[in-house]
Design brief:
heterotrimer, A mainly alpha (about 325), B alpha/beta (about 325), C mainly alpha (about 300), A: about 325 residues, MetI-like fold, 2 strands, about 75% helix, globular, C: mainly alpha, two-stranded antiparallel sheet, 11 helices, elongated, disordered N terminus
Chain lengths: ~325, ~325, ~300
């Protein structure tokens, strides 16, 4: 088991190193940061000083290693636009995004899995067909469009919920969180639903496919032959059997939801990192883009690692012996 | 024969598929006495497994019991609601399947699976349930049962796994245990062990066994009585020794001749010519007709079941005229 | 469907019907899916013939008048005809803009899907065929990319490449090819281990023959399912990027761009400018996905009864 962990850790580090090279090279190749850093009327003297300050006159390779050295010391550079340390900029906005993502994905999990199991239990029933129709909708309708309709319906027409912002927050672990206040929840509701719909569709599909397959198997038949009620069979046997792929996807979706949050945050003016990255892409704010992409890549690698470990915990066959 | 605990009469189970009606079980009648071991033998596709599931009320759609009756200790099972049947399953009539790797849940411990089966019929404390589970495991021959409750199925050998499955089926002391090829997936040596244990268990607890198998030789060593199934019907039945010594139906005779034990050294094994017929819209008449060397014009009609004392046969040309009483 | 001649033969019997015929027959069994397929065909035809059926050429700026801008559905404009779905911020007839937008969206979705199909399938089959080191490297990259959300990749690429149709398609292809590669690789490596492919490899037949005669036809059904889903996804992704202001130039707006253009008028009650293009977008994506969904169901052998 520990050999397995070490191997996965080394792999993760390698992936991160490769990612950093690709992303740095990609970002280095676009635009001229001087156009952003300097006013058009800047003098030659100011120009040269700026170039020297950001090390723009050095070869790419040197700039890369310079960046990596700073990165390892926890210095992600300064934003060209905000003129603030990137680390500070991102860490200030990350809680908002994490909160939104967690609420959405957990909501999708707890609603989607039961619905999917129901649809897989009786695939031909009317309720199952309705659930599947909803899942196709959730899968198909672009997130931004759902967001617009949610705002139009619940904020503009009905006036029940606010259309943007985080609302009141409360402190926990030295960070402000919306989910600790009622007003915060009212602000969180629409963006969370918006972000959750796509995940909900995925959870429904996964749970349905898994349930359908398990239902045809002998485990369910044997449990029925032992006189277990359908409820016990579903809640104890089937749920546990389908949980492995669901946990895997749950983890992976946690990462991709982080990326999707970009859209939702833009629509609902949610002050998270998603909005930050869109702005930095539009403004060619290299340090912020670079940091965001490295952060996302790092998160992905970590999540993949954790998923593998959880996998090993959930499947007793993997636990002993290590490899499948 | 003691009073029958299980009485099946004219049981008919059909599958309504897109391609047509599959008559998997087509008018099957037999009875099983308390504590009796009955072997239900047939080739794959003969409808023997579907018969087993029909007894349990566990036929998967698009199949269903079309007509007939299954009486367990005098109570009619056909037509009972799902919940009424559920209350009987595992407590009065139980079933084990062929592959214990597929029947046991790989991600739940043996103890959890047994506790779930216990609480399906009895509300007991966890401690009492564990004690009972360990007790039944010990009886099916699992050493140190108590400490093995926390183990997962993959930590057991194939034979031990099947013993666990049998233990789950026996938790509530069912009157009838339907065993569908329970030893087919196991090594020959373990097969023999389990067969002996099952016979002892049945004798000890008074549980009647319906042993479904394609393997005439194995069943013969275990069963009191044989039911030979062909194309959804029971074509011959009777006490094991009597049927083996003196088969009446040409199909049974063919099966016996194809056993390795009856072959002369150096000779090829006998094979019944032809293949099992499709059960999809079968033509009327004796289904064995195309493969039978004794077939005649008569055989285009359905042969009736002729009972004589403890023997029964469905054939117009039985191999030996039955001795009338 | 009611023609008895194309009834499927009962299981086990030799099949005289070609696999594609059989597939089509099974597809038609589900009315809802058939209806969705009809909708897709209709929308493609509408997009193809947009210049013939739309009341106005929305790209012809000389035909527009700002006096007609942002008028509700049913408004009779200075052109003399009724704007059934109203007009947009530039005074364009919304119905015409939607038909042309549909054209742009479909064009981008299908182009991206097709290019990704070709590139992804080639990579997948190449990896399966080459085995060993090449396989390990190629599939490692593909897997890495699969775990990365396509929207983020597309977002960054569009930022790197700049705006325009070709750049957008490139970004979409880069974000999507991995799905085809995975599918083709799976089918091809399952196929390569079969006896007849190994036998074919032992004879002096060219690799091309093995790929085109044996591997591709077997991988095709799964690839078609992926292609349907990915075309729908490309369309949605393009709309999303356009909405975020990172998509196409405004001159030839796609459905996503039309929605984006109308958003600022949405809060003031002029909802139609965004809502109608949105409805068209959703009908398009949902219909394609329903077709793909049903295809997946009938092509999944494990759920075959």
């Amino acid at each position: 088991m520990s050999g397995f962990i070490i191997q996965r850790l080394l792999q993760a580090i390698l992936v991160m190193a490769v990612m950093s090279v690709i992303v740095f090279a990609g970002i280095y190749s676009i635009g001229n940061p001087l156009e952003i850093l300097l006013p058009p009327e800047a003098t030659q003297d100011v120009r040269e000083r700026t170039i020297a300050r950001f090390g723009l006159d050095r070869p790419v390779v040197e700039q890369y290693f310079y960046y990596i050295r700073n990165l390892l010391q926890g210095d992600l550079g300064r934003s060209y636009i905000y003129n603030e340390p990137v680390l500070h900029l991102i860490s200030g906005r990350l809680p908002a995004t994490i909160e939104l993502v967690l609420v959405s994905v957990l909501g999708a999990l707890f609603v989607g899995v039961p619905l999917g199991m129901l649809a897989g239990y009786r695939p031909d029933a009317l309720s199952s067909r309705i659930i599947m129709a909803v899942s196709i909708l959730g899968f198909s309708v672009p997130t931004f469009w759902v967001g617009l309709i949610l705002i139009l319906t619940f904020a503009v027409q009905l006036g029940w919920l606010p259309s943007g912002g985080r609302g009141d927050t409360a402190e926990l672990f030295g960070t402000a969180w919306s989910f600790l206040t009622l007003n915060g929840w009212s602000h969180l509701a629409l963006p969370a639903i918006n972000l959750a719909l796509f995940k909900l569709a995925i959870m429904i599909r996964l749970a349905r496919a898994g349930t359908r397959e398990v239902m045809l198997g002998d485990t369910v038949k044997f449990a029925r032959a032992a006189g277990l009620s359908e409820w016990t069979i579903m809640s104890r046997h089937v749920l546990k059997l389908i949980s492995i792929p669901i946990v895997t996807v749950f983890g992976l979706e946690l990462g991709s939801t982080l990326a999707f949050a970009v859209v939702t945050e833009t629509i609902f003016s949610w002050p998270g990192v998603g909005k930050l990255i869109i702005d930095s892409i539009k403004n060619l704010d290299r340090p912020v883009m670079m940091a965001y992409l490295m952060l996302t890549a790092g998160l992905f690698v970590t999540i993949n690692l954790v998923v593998d470990l959880v996998y090993a915990i959930l499947d007793p066959r993997l636990r002993k012996g290590g490899a499948a | 024969m003691s009073a029958p605990i299980l009485e099946v009469s004219d049981l008919t189970t059909h599958f309504f598929t897109r391609a047509g009606v599959v008559k998997a079980v087509d008018g099957v009648s037999f009875s099983v006495g308390a504590g009796e071991i009955v072997g239900l033998v047939g080739e794959s596709g003969s409808g023997k497994s579907v018969t087993g599931f029909s007894l349990m009320g566990l036929v998967d759609p698009p199949g269903r019991i079309v007509s007939g009756s299954v009486k367990l200790d005098g109570e009619e099972l056909v037509g009972l609601s799902w919940d009424q049947l559920r209350a009987l399953r595992g407590s009065h009539i139980a079933m084990v399947f062929q592959d214990p790797m597929a029947t046991l849940n790989p991600v739940l411990t043996i103890g959890t699976q047994m506790r779930l089966a216990i609480s399906a019929h009895d509300k007991t404390s966890r401690r009492a349930a564990d004690a009972r589970a360990a007790d039944v495991l010990t009886r099916v021959g699992i050493p140190e049962a108590r400490s093995r409750l926390g183990a997962y199925p993959h930590e057991f050998s194939g034979g031990m796994r099947q013993r666990v499955a049998i233990a789950i089926a026996l938790l509530h002391g069912s009157q009838v245990l339907v065993a569908d090829e329970p030893t087919t997936a196991l090594d020959v040596s373990i097969q023999a062990q389990i067969l002996t244990e099952m016979r002892d268990l049945a004798a000890e607890t008074g549980t009647a066994l319906v042993w479904i198998s394609h393997d005439l030789a194995t069943v013969s060593t275990l069963a009191d009585r044989l039911l030979v199934m062909y194309a959804g019907r029971i074509v011959e039945q009777g006490p094991v020794a009597s049927v083996l010594r003196d088969p009446h139906h040409p199909y049974t005779a063919g099966l016996l001749r194809s056993l390795p034990a009856t072959a002369k050294p150096g000779e090829d094994l006998f094979q019944i010519p032809g293949t099992t017929p499709s059960l999809l819209d079968p033509p009327p008449g004796c289904p064995f007709r195309p493969r039978c060397e004794h077939a005649s014009e008569l055989c285009t009609a359905d042969p009736p079941l002729e009972m004589s004392r403890d023997r029964g046969v469905r054939c117009f040309h039985p191999l030996r005229e039955m001795v009338s009483v | 469907m009611k023609d008895p001649a194309i009834k499927p033969l009962p299981g086990g019997a030799p099949k005289a019907v070609s696999p594609w015929r059989d597939l089509w027959w099974r597809f038609c069994e589900d009315r809802v899916a058939l209806f969705a397929f009809g909708v897709v065909v209709l929308l493609v035809l509408m997009a193809l013939f947009a210049p013939l059926i739309s009341p106005q050429n929305p790209y012809d700026l000389s035909g527009l008048s700002l006096r007609d801008a942002r008028r509700p559905p049913g408004f009779v404009g200075s052109g003399g005809y009724t704007h059934i779905l109203g007009t947009d911020a530039q005074g364009r007839d919304l119905l015409s803009a939607i038909l042309y937008g549909l054209r742009v969206s479909l064009q981008i979705g299908i182009t991206a899907g097709a290019v990704a199909l070709v590139i992804g399938t080639s990579i997948g089959i190449a990896a399966a065929y080459a085995r060993g080191f090449v396989e390990a490297i190629l599939m490692r990259i593909v897997d890495l990319q699969l775990s990365f959300p396509p929207i983020l990749l597309a977002l960054v690429l569009v930022a790197l490449l700049g705006q325009g149709q070709a750049q957008l398609v490139t970004a979409l292809v880069a974000a999507q090819y991995a799905y085809f590669a995975r599918t083709a690789f799976g089918a091809a490596s399952a196929e390569r281990s079969k006896d007849y492919v190994e036998a074919a490899a032992a004879t002096p037949l060219s690799a091309r023959r093995i790929v085109f005669r044996h591997i591709l036809p077997n991988a095709m059904p799964a690839l078609i399912v992926v292609a349907t889903v990915q075309i729908a996804y490309a369309i949605a992704l393009e709309a999303t990027l356009s909405f975020l202001g990172l998509g196409l130039p405004v001159t030839e707006p796609s459905l996503g761009m039309l929605i984006s253009n109308g958003v600022k008028y949405m809060m003031s009650g002029r909802t139609w400018i965004s809502v109608y293009p949105g409805i068209m977008l959703i009908i398009l994506i949902v219909a394609i996905n329903m077709v793909g969904d049903h295809l997946r169901d009938i092509l999944n052998p494990r759920l075959d009864k």
